[in-house]
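Problem 3 from the worked examples.
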Amino acid sequence: MSFWRSLVGKLWVTIICLVAVVLITVGLFLLPYIDSNFANSGAIKRLFTYACMIGFSLTTFFALFLFTKITQPMQQVIEAANNIRRGQYGTRLKLRTSDEIGQLATSFNHMAAELEENIRSLNHEKGHLSSVLRSMTDPVITFDNEGQVILTNPHGQKLLEIWSDLSLEHQPEGDAGPGEEHAHFSAVPLPLRPLFMDTLRQGGDQRANVHVRQGVWSVHMAPLYSDERIRGAVAVLRDVTEEVRLEKMRRDFVANVSHEIRTPLSMMQGYSEALLDGMASSPEERNELVQVIHDESLRMGRLVKDLLDLARMEAGHTDMMMGQVDMGELLERIYRKFTVRAKERDIILELHKSEGQLLLKFADVDKLEQVLTNLLDNAFRHTPADKQISITGSSIVLEGRRYLELAIRDQGAGIHPDDLPFIFERFYKADKARVRGESGGTGLGLAIVKNIVESHHGQIFAASRLGEGTTFTLRLPVEKQ
C-alpha cells in the first residue's frame, strides 16, 4: 500500500495542506498590508490577530475532519467488538476505506465470520453430542477432578437421583481412601467413588461390576485429559442384572442337571456292578437289582424328555394343535383319571365347575391335559392321607376380556414364602417346606407348566401357607389372542 494512502500519510498530507493554506493566505492577503503599513504597530497587531484566527479556524476544521476520518471509525470498531463479546456474532463493520482502518475493518469482518462459523460448528457438535447422549440407553455421567457432575444424559440423571439416597452404611468393601477423601468427592455416587479415585490416581480406564441394592451395573470409567493433565472422568454404566441372573441360572442349570443325572447313573452303575460281581445269590435278588436299574433308566428317560420338551418350548418350536377345547369335559376326564389314585392314597378328590360350557376357542387340549396332570401329580405327591384336593373351573371377566380360571387346591404341607417366587424355575424343589411322599420328580414339571400356559397367552399363580396347603390358579383367555 502507498505511503500517502495510509493513515500516517493522510495525517502528514493534512498537516502540509494546513501549513500551506496558512502560508498562502498570509502571503496573498496579508503581506500587502504589511508592506504599506509596516510603521503602523496597530496594523501589525491586527495582522497577527487575523492570522491567528484564520489558523485556529483552519486547525479546528482539520481537527474535525481528522476526528471524522479516524476517531469515528475506531468507535465503530470498539462497538462492534463489544457486540461480539456479548454474543452477537453476526456483527459486521461497513467501513470501506483503503487505509489501516479499512484493513482493520476487513480483518475484523473476516474474524467475526470465522468466529461465527466456529461457534455454529461448536453448537452443531454440541447438539449432535447431546442427541447421541439422549439416544443412549446406557447412563453416561461426566465428573470433573473435584467430583462434580459436569455432563450427563437423561438416564444418567435419573440414575443419580436414584442413587442420591444411598447411605454410607452400604459402602462396598475394599473401598479405597479415607473418610475425608470420600467426603471431598461427595457429589460422586457412593458406588462409583472407588473407580473414580482409581481413575484419577492411575490415569487409565477402570472397569468393574457394581452391586447396588438388587441390581448389578457394569461400569467403564475413563479419564478426561486437558494438556496432558487429568481434568475429570467419564463413566458409562450398563445394567447387567438380567445378564448376571441368566448366567447364574445357567450355572445352576448345569449343576442341577449334573446332580439329577448323577444320582440315577450312580445307582445304575452300582447295581450293575453288583450283578457283574455275582452279589445276587438268588433269582429274586437279581430281579430286584434289575428292577432298580430299570426304574432309574426310566427316571433318566423322563428327565431327558422333560429337558428336551422345555428347550423346545423356550425356543418356540413346540408343535401345538390349536382348536376349540371343552374345558368342562377335560376337567371331568382328569378327575376320573385321578380318582383311583385318590382312593389308593385315602385322599378326597373333588371337582367343582360353574354351570354352562367352559370353552376355549384356541387351545391345545393335549398340552392343557399335561398342565393339569403335572399340577395334580404335585398335589398328590405333597398331600397326606385324609386330606382334600379340589379342582375348580369357572368363567370370569377381567378388563373386558373373558377368561377361564382353573384352580388346583391341596391341603399339603405348603410352600415357604421365600421359596414361592422361585417354584417355576427349573430344578427348584422347595424340600424345606414340602415333605415328599414320593420320589421320582425331575424338578421340571412346573417350569413346563408355566411355558405351556404362557404359550396360550395365559397366566399361572401360586399361593400357599405353611401347614395349610397350596393353590395353583390358571387364567386362560377364551378368545383367540
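Problem 4, a separate protein:
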Amino acid sequence: MAIENTTENMANTETAGAAAAGAEAFAVPRYPVAPGCRLNVRSGPGTGYGLIKVLPEGVRVPINCQKPGTRVTGPYGTSNLWDNIGNGQWVADAYVNTGSDGYVAVRCS
C-alpha cells in the first residue's frame, strides 16, 4: 500500500509541476519603470483620464496590451503608446523600459 501511495504522490507532484511550468510559459513579461520615477496609473490611455494611483520607484509592470493615446515625453523618449497593466489601468510607455520604441505586446481592442 505504501508503494501505491508513493507512486500516486509522485504522479500528483509531476502533474502539479507540469501545470506550473505551463503557467509560466503564458506569464506576461514585466518591464522596469524608469529609475527614480514614480509612475502615474490612469483609467485610460491618456493624460486626460483620471489618476488611479501612483506606482513607487523601482517597480516592474506587466504589459497586457498596448494602445495609442496622448503623446507623452519621458525618460525613454516621446511616444503616444500606452501600456495596459491591469483592468482599467494604463501607464505611459515613455516611462517603461521595454527596449523598444514600438509595440512589445498585442494591440488592445
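Solution to problem 4. Helices lie at 2-25. Residues 1-23 have pLDDT under 50 and may be disordered.
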